[in-house]
Amino acid sequence: MRTTISLCLAAAAALSLSACDAPGAGGTRDSIRAVGSSTVYPFAKVVAENFARSHADFKSPLIESTGTGGGIALFCAGVGPTTPDIANASRRMKKSEFETCQANGVEDVIELQVGLDGIAFASAQGGIMMNLTPEIVYKAIAAQPYGEEQTAKTWADVDPSLPTEPILVYGPPSTSGTRDALKELVLEVGCDANPAMEQIKEGDEDRHAQICTEVRSDGAYVDQGEQDNLIVQKIGNNPKAVGVFGYSYLEENAGKVQGLPMNGVEPTYENISSFRYPGARPLYIYVKKAHLDAIPGLKEFIAEWTRSWGKDGPLAKIGLVPSPEDAMAENLEAATQYTAMTGDELE
């Protein structure tokens, strides 16, 4: 059935999916659909709005905030009008996800790094201020720091130089790419500062992952779903709380919240672009090559991304940090040549 749908999509080039009446194709669609990361969502919305203004002959794209993991799962479910054309991601696709795509007939996937972001730790303006480190964050919010019982109630319990305020961190859920990046860029780094953790990793990777990335569930870390703006509101109303979200939300709400330094480095545009800030990360979109000629405007929408992600582009004005020039050139080529991934570049 996958083959039938793929052929049907190709046959519908430059028209709509009305020709796709293969079993399971699920009707027609003549507008672009993108799902995924809440961090990429505001950037994708701006690209969609600019696309709609400059391409009145195409319908406005539908952009949904489902979280990176959930978006990639929808994207990789198959080919056809009932599946999205694009997955927005605040982390790179995993090899296991790519293999799921392949197994479900999503054989050609175009990966585009659209820019950089940072995992910002923040508090209310005038609220709690700390110089964090990956080790401090890990000890504060890990379910079992270094495999031991979590006993820290205040930040001072973690490090005597920190305030004697209760640990309260509002952060992303397990389905979020921001949570994945938090694990990889901060929690695992803090965990592996203990030499014993490296030994555990060599002997039992699953146990290592559990110890290093599982967050506490006793109320000190509060999952706020995929709405990063809700985290901004929560810490804005509580000067003793800390929030974790994408840098763009920090910049957008600069009058309400303040960034907390990590390893003495502030979460700023310059520090993220240079990767000096430990929480810097790339952002991606994944495009289904089989849909390029079948979904009206999809090629033009990709071109709109390439016109938007530069240093002087509209996305930089709302907090996207442009990729380094060599990476931008490489991704521009992939966006214009529609180069599909091989999967070898993934982990």
Q: What tags apply to this protein structure?
A:
D-Maltodextrin-Binding Protein, domain 2, 37% helix, single chain, nine-stranded mixed β-sheet, alpha/beta, 347 residues
Q: Considering DSSP H and I runs of 4 or more, what fraction of the residues is helical?
A: 25-40%
| β-strand number | 9
- The gross shape turns out to be globular
Secondary structural class:
alpha/beta
CATH architecture of the largest domain: 3-Layer(aba) Sandwich
Low-confidence stretches: 1-27
Radius of gyration: 21 Å
Strand content: 5-15%
Span between termini: 30 Å
The count of helical stretches stands at 14
Encode the helix/strand succession as letters. HEHEHEHEHHEHHHEHEHEHEHH
Number of domains: 2
CATH class of the largest domain: Alpha Beta
> What is the CATH topology of the largest domain?
D-Maltodextrin-Binding Protein, domain 2
CATH superfamily of the largest domain: Periplasmic binding protein-like II
**Could you report the average pLDDT, rounded to the nearest whole number?**
89
Describe the main β-sheet briefly.
Answer: 9 strands, mixed
Overview of the structural elements:
The chain is α/β, with parallel strands linked by helices and 347 residues long. Helix content is 37%, strand content 15%. The radius of gyration is 21 Å and the shape is globular. Mean pLDDT is 89; it is low at 1-27.
Question: What's this entry about, in short?
Answer:
By secondary structure, the chain is α/β, with parallel strands linked by helices. The protein is built from 14 helices and 9 strands. Strand 1 (33-36), helix 2 (41-54) and strand 2 form a beta-alpha-beta unit.
